[in-house]
């Protein structure tokens, strides 16, 4: 049997051409692996058939929607992970799952090499190759688009010369990546930072003004940090994301227009749509504010930033990431209760919280009758708390 290469297959131009190109250049058989992450669009069976028609000896389609929701999206919710304080890691958290299945396929098919269709300017090349190195250090990697300077024109010419069944008549001005957690759009006229996004950029969200007269109030129930019900109806994590994608998306929630710092050292303008992600993280943060002790919450917020950076930088399988996962999971033990939000005009605004694990004590918080807080203790507390600053000020101002 010939050597085999396992290819991360999207069904698009570059990875379809890569099947035939790898076979011709290396003499290896190509096994195409396509992952269903809830991205929608073309039927996965059609994608599988295209891979076979382009010369793959085997084409595998993996329905990983629940796995993605439970093992990748949920930890992101529990970590309140937002890269640069904004981006809920739409593409970043999907790559380690794809890597996992590539490595499994490589072991099953006795492949020595895996391949991806990433360019040399983006983050995904790092996420794929660092992830592969962490799970299967002995596997080799081929990246035709990056390593052989493919252009769209070269790929089309190769497809025509080799009679590959690829329809490339319609060219989108954008580069788009999407899954159930959200949608990422870049390139085209968006590369000019002064250009505002046009209506055709968006798909997961409606214009925030369209349903402005019809706000949507929703109650999200969590059990130990896991969303388990929407408006009292039990849901899986995947169903919670899908439901909030629909309802928050209808209200224009989750639109992001940002210039982010890529791992490779350049700044990139990105448009994101993540209605379900933003709504669920907003609700989860609000419940943590009620149920997580102050010092633990303060430290967790530092961990959240580092967690997001590790995921963004392709270090999902790193020792530090695993250690932070254990910390985040421990913080979720009391994060149980309900959050009420109003989805309206592009925002998800929390207006109600309840939990049997709440640390909010009405009798301590109230200024009215029934106040049990002993205010006489506050004077000494303030004096001691500020003592070191006061002593330093006497020295520095003298």
Number of domains: 2
Shape: elongated
Q: What is the fourth-level CATH superfamily of the largest domain?
A: HUPs
Helix content: 40-55%
Structural class, from secondary structure content?
alpha/beta
Q: Catalogue the unreliable spans.
A: none
Order of helices and strands: EHEHEHHEHEHHEEEEEHEEHHHEEHHH
CATH architecture of the largest domain: 3-Layer(aba) Sandwich
EC number: 6.3.4.5
Subcellular location: Cytoplasm
Main location: cytoplasm
Binding site for L-aspartate: 119, 123-124
Secondary structure blueprint with pairings:
Elements lengths: L3 E5 L4 H14 L2 E8 L7 H10 L4 E6 L1 H14 L16 H14 L4 E3 L8 H12 L4 E3 L1 H4 L4 H10 L13 E5 L2 E5 L29 E8 L2 E5 L2 E2 L2 H14 L4 E7 L5 E7 L1 H17 L2 H19 L6 H13 L5 E8 L2 E8 L7 H4 L12 H8 L1 H10 L2
Parallel strand pairs: 1-2, 1-4, 2-3, 4-5
Antiparallel strand pairs: 6-7, 7-12, 8-9, 8-13, 9-10, 11-12, 13-14
EC number: 6.3.4.5
Subcellular location: Cytoplasm
GO molecular function: argininosuccinate synthase activity; ATP binding
């Amino acid at each position: 049997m010939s050597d085999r290469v396992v290819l991360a297959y999207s069904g698009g131009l570059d990875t379809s051409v890569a099947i035939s190109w790898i076979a011709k250049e290396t003499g290896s058989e190509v096994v195409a692996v396509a992952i269903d992450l809830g991205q929608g669009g073309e039927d996965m069976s059609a994608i599988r058939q295209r891979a076979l028609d382009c010369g793959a000896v085997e084409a595998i389609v993996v329905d990983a929607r629940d796995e993605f929701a439970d093992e990748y999206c949920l930890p992101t919710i529990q970590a309140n992970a937002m890269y640069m304080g904004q981006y809920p890691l739409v593409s970043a958290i999907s790559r380690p799952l794809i890597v996992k299945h590539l490595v499994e396929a490589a072991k099953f098919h006795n492949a020595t090499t895996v391949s991806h269709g990433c360019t040399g300017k983006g983050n995904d090349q790092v996420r794929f190759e660092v992830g592969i190195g962490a799970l299967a250090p002995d596997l080799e990697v081929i990246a035709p688009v990056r390593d052989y300077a493919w252009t769209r024109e070269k790929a089309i010419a190769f497809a025509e010369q080799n009679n590959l069944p690829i329809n490339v008549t319609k060219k989108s001005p954008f580069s788009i990546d999407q899954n159930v957690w959200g949608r990422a759009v870049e390139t085209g006229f968006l590369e000019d930072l002064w250009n505002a996004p046009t209506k055709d950029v968006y798909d997961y969200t409606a214009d925030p003004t369209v349903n402005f007269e019809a706000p949507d109030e929703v109650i999200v129930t969590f059990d130990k940090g896991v969303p388990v019900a929407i408006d009292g109806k039990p849901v899986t994590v995947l169903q919670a994301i899908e439901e909030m994608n629909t309802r928050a998306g209808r209200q224009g929630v989750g639109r992001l227009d940002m210039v982010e710092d890529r791992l490779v050292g350049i700044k990139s303008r990105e448009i994101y749509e993540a209605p379900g992600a933003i709504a669920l993280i907003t609700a989860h943060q609000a419940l943590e504010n009620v149920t997580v002790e102050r010092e633990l919450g303060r430290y967790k917020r530092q961990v959240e930033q580092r967690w997001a950076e590790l995921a963004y930088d392709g270090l999902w399988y790193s020792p530090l990431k695993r250690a932070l996962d254990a910390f985040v999971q421990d913080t979720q033990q009391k994060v149980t209760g309900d959050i009420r939000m109003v989805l309206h005009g592009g925002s998800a605004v929390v207006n109600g919280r309840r939990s049997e694990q709440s640390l909010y004590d009405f009798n301590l918080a109230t200024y009215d009758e029934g106040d049990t807080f002993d205010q006489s203790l506050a004077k000494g507390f303030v004096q001691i708390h500020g003592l070191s600053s006061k002593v330093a000020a006497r020295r520095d101002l003298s």
